[in-house]
Design a protein that fits this description.
By secondary structure, the chain is α+β, with helices and mostly antiparallel strands. The chain is 30% helix and 34% strand. It has 8 helices and 15 strands. Helix 3 links the parallel strand 3 and strand 4. The radius of gyration is 19 Å and the shape is globular.
Length: 294
């Protein structure tokens, strides 16, 4: 019988994560597995809880929450034999989306019980790992707006509202981004480095990114007018913005980002550090439970 430690914050999402976690334990038992609930007080408490669980020899961790909590768990178990499971109930659920894990509770728990653990790549900045996208420029400013809770909305709509509010005062950023073979230099709206395609609750910002190809995908949107940003927003959800003339893309195992003044880098929606920075792929760094196709 497989035992899953279910990570949940009783206060997150007005109690939604905790309710899902309790239902997940019952569903796991019906599938012949077992779940043990590990409560966290906030995102910053996840590392402490994971440390205690790992110290007891626990190996399978199901996150009942969103990308912020997943980010903390990923950083606790990267490059180990522990396995991440995801029960999506956050605002973005972008890593779950990239891995084909549905938001439907019974289906997500079914993957925990009957799926297959597989290794995926992670992005790495210093000692910090990320599963989805690292960004500089406009997207980092929007992520800061979202993380500070400036607004009453949730999910992808919360990201769009934050983007519109941030756009009013945002100024393009001078940047130099060095890859394995090419260097991009110039003013940009944003630079997004993807280990996975999605962020912001379903925006397909880096459609070429895949979690198991040993590379990071870069998408740069050059300096454009605010009106062009608004006209292009829908295309970002579709991933078709990369066809537009003001978009630069590349693949690389590592990228170095520098700016005239230090600029924040956000990854998985979390603040990581300021430029200059080196971002690299960490191949096969995370074991994650995904759907079995047998």
């Amino acid at each position: 019988m497989e035992n899953w430690t279910i990570i949940a914050n009783p206060n997150a999402g007005r109690g939604l994560a905790f309710r899902h976690a309790n239902k997940a334990m019952s569903l796991l038992e019906r599938c012949g597995s077992r779940g043990t609930l590990a409560k966290t007080r906030d995102v910053g408490d996840v590392a402490r809880v994971l440390g205690e669980c790992l110290g007891r020899g626990e190996k399978r961790f199901a996150v009942c929450g969103g990308d912020g909590t997943i980010h903390q768990v990923v950083n606790a178990i990267a490059n180990t034999d522990a396995v991440l499971g995801i029960i999506p109930c956050g605002g973005g659920n972008d890593l779950a989306r990239a891995l084909g894990i549905p938001v439907h509770l019974e289906s997500a728990v079914g993957i925990l019980a009957r799926g297959e653990p597989t290794r995926i790549d992670l992005g790495r900045i210093g000692e910090r790992f990320f599963g989805t996208i690292a960004s500089v420029g406009f997207d980092a400013a929007v992520a800061e707006h979202v993380s500070e809770g400036k607004g009453k909305f949730s999910g992808s709509f919360r990201y769009v509202v934050s983007a519109l509010r941030t756009l009013k005062s945002f100024e393009a950023t001078d940047v130099e981004i060095k890859g394995d073979k090419e260097t991009y230099t110039g003013k940009i709206l944003l630079g997004a480095i993807g280990n996975a395609p999605y962020y912001g609750g379903g925006m397909r910002m880096v459609p070429a990114a895949t979690v198991n190809d040993g590379h990071l995908a870069l998408c740069v949107i050059k300096e454009i007018s605010k009106l062009t940003v608004l006209r292009s927003l829908l295309r970002v959800y579709q991933g078709s913005h990369i066809e537009m003339p003001f978009v630069y893309t590349a693949h690389s195992k590592a990228l170095e980002i520098d700016t005239p003044e230090p600029e924040w880098i956000y990854a998985d929606g979390e603040p990581i550090c300021k430029t200059p920075v080196r971002v690299e792929v960490s191949e096969g760094a995370l074991r994650v439970m995904v759907r079995s196709f047998d």
